[in-house]
Structure formats: structure tokens, C-alpha cells
Amino acid sequence: QSALTQPASVSGSPGQSITISCTGTSSDVGSYNLVSWYQQHPGKAPKLMIYEVSKRPSGVSNRFSGSKSGNTASLTISGLQAEDEADYYCCSYAGSSTFDVFGTGTKVTVL
Amino acid sequence: EVQLVESGGGLVQPGGSLRLSCAASGFTFSSYWMSWVRQAPGKGLEWVANIKQDGSEKYYVDSVKGRFTISRDNAKNSLYLQMNSLRAEDTAVYYCARQEYPGDAFDIWGQGTMVTVSS
Question: What is the rounded distance in angstroms from the CA atom of residue B11 to the CA atom of residue A99?
Fold first, then answer.
């Protein structure tokens, strides 16, 4: 099972909106509404930001939103802030033999 | 406070063995599937293995099948990963994480423990 494809880097200025794509296949992203997104600051553990494509856990800013179309999921960060600078990973369920597949990761830079 | 704390990492020679532990607190451990997820230095996240609430089902990524064994002790609120026949490519930070069911999001993560396989 190959990793889901994400852009290596995305950047934006404070206050802007950015979108990170996560492209899979009909066997993972396209088959299940079980896409999640994680934020990881250097040297820290990943933190859940979005689950089930578009749901936000308690405590996560509403500046973070998720969506999916076909085999591609997306994470949008609006009103970009300095603290949003981190690596972001998508993850999708891929069935009962492969289970969870992560994306290649995207480094978000706040200019 | 809901918490996962890993331990047991270290430096091991190729072909050697290591046992990782993950201590859970602040939630009903026996109600959750648990997973190990690893991250090689400078690389992305990779799901390694998971185990059902009662330990009756266990699944592994192909690259560790036959070498790694996941287990749990619900009485001790602990998750384990026995790693045998270690290879250089197993070098990574290993995180334990919880899920309500396979495919569910990993909502709680430990801080990770570093495993280095090198001679």
C-alpha cells in the first residue's frame, strides 16, 4: 500500500488561507469517509486536527476545515497564524487488510 | 488526564530485539483499539500494527510481519511491541496511539520512544 500523496510544502502569509491536498485511490480515500488530519510540530507527537473528513475535535480552532472529493481529501487553514507553522499529515482507512495509510506530509510555512 | 507514555527504546544491533511499552492512564484502556505508529528520522508517519480491545485480533504492516508482535495487558493498562530481527530500516520514533475502531482517527498519542538499529 503506497502512501497518500501530499505536496511537500505550502506557504502563506498571516491571515491568508491555504489548502493542503491529499490524493489517494479508490481503495482508500475514495472508498471511506475515514480521513483524518494531524499537525506535528518539530520534536512533538502528532495532534489530531480533523476526523471523518470534516469533523473537528473539541479544542481545535474552527480555522481548520476538511473536505473530500473523489479520491482527494483537503485540509484548509484559514486566517493563517504563526503557530500553524508545522508539518501536516493526512490519513485514510484502506480496508481490513491494510488498515491505515498516512500521507507523505506537508510542511506549512507562514511567511 | 488522558495520557499515553512509551518506554523501552534504545540502541540495538541489527538482528537484535527490543520490547516497547506504552502505559495508558486517564481512560478505560480496555475499551479501545490500540496501535503503534512509527516515524523514521526526517520521514513521514507509518502505521505499524494494531490490536483489538480484548487482544483477539492483531494486524501488521507487511514490512514487520513475522518480526514484530503487538500485545496488551488490560489489567495493567499497557500496550507492548516486541520487535525481533531488527533492521536498520526499523530505526524510528515509535508512537502508541488509540482508536475507537479500525479506521477511526488516532485521537490520543504518546510522546514517542526512539529506536535506533545500528552496529
Answer: 29
User: From the CA of B59, how many Å to the nearest CA of chain A?
Assistant: 8
What pLDDT is attached to residue A29? Answer: 97
Contact status of A2 with chain B (Cβ, < 8 Å): no
Chain A interface mutation, best of B45, B46, B47, highest count of A Cβ atoms under 10 Å: B45
In sequence order, what E strands does A1-111 have? 9-12, 18-23, 35-40, 47-50, 64-69, 72-77, 86-93, 100-102, 106-110
**Which chain A residue is nearest to residue B112, measuring alpha carbons?**
A45
Average pLDDT, chain A: 97
A44 Cβ contact partners less than 8 Å away, ≥ 6 residues apart: none
Dihedral class, residue A79 (left if φ above 0, else alpha if ψ from -120 to 50, else beta): left
Q: Is the CB of B41 inside 8 Å of chain A's CB atoms?
A: no
Q: What is the pLDDT of residue A65?
A: 98
For residue B36, give the nearest of B58, B15, B54, B16 by alpha carbon: B58
- Can you tell me the mean pLDDT for A75-91? 98
In this complex, the residue of B47, B107, B109 whose CB is nearest that of residue A100 is B47
Percent with pLDDT over 70 in chain B? 100
Residue A26 CA to residue A28 CA, distance in Å, equals 6
